[in-house]
Amino acid sequence: MSLYSEVEVLRRLPLFAKIDLPMLKLLCFSSERLTFEAGQVVFNVGDSADAAYILIDGYVAISRPSPTGPVVVGTLGPMEIVGEIAVFSDLARTATITATTRVDALRIAKEQMMSIVRANPEAALELIRQLAMRLAKTTAQLTEIMATSAADAKLAADAAAGAASQAPGATR
After folding, report:
1. pLDDT tens-digit readout, 90-143
2. CB 6 within 8 A of CB 28
3. Is the Cβ–Cβ distance between 88 and 144 less than 8 Å?
4. Backbone phi, then psi, for 83, in 5-degree steps?
């Protein structure tokens, strides 16, 4: 992919849409173009946050470890960014990202991402908007999971109470 093509890809992303052309060219020139095959890990939970990735083509799964093994908590695809949370929070990676198809991505170093946000208030506002939308989506998913778990627990308790009342020797 040419530098021009990479600049056009970034221009289509709301995060970079209002950044001037020379800055976008510099960003593309200094970023690294990577390809991940299906099943290949982009980064693991706990890794240091050294870069964010712009997904140009392909899909990734977002997973978190659990006692029973990794749990996929979401997916991302073309024209989405991944890894920015850890880059801006100075925390280790919060999830493992695994390619589910062949993925072409631009790797943007942490320092580059930080300088873009510092120099472009519109990019900073867009980043905040995207993170807020992700938080709202995660909150809705968590609420749904908790409601389902509560309903399942009530059904199990009701079934156990019903079985206990049917047991031999149970008083009625």
Report:
1. 889 999 999 999 999 999 999 998 888 888 888 888 888 888 887 888 788 778
2. yes
3. no
4. 95, -5
> E-assigned strands of the chain?
32-36, 41-43, 51-57, 60-64, 71-76, 80-82, 96-99, 103-109
Beta strand extents in 3-137 (DSSP E only) = 32-36, 41-43, 51-57, 60-64, 71-76, 80-82, 96-99, 103-109
Quick one: which H or E segment has residue 149? helix 121-166
Q: What is the pTM of this model?
A: 0.76
Q: How many residues are present in the chain?
A: 172
Nearest to 87 by CA among 2, 4, 15: 15
Q: Which fold has domain 3-161?
A: Jelly Rolls (2.60.120)
Task: Give, in order, the Cα–Cα distances in Å from 145 to each of 83, 86, 152, 154, 160.
Answer: 24, 25, 10, 14, 22
Residue spans of beta strands (DSSP E) within 44-165: 51-57, 60-64, 71-76, 80-82, 96-99, 103-109
- Angle 70-73-79 from CA coordinates, rounded to 5°: 120
* Domain residue spans of the chain: 3-161
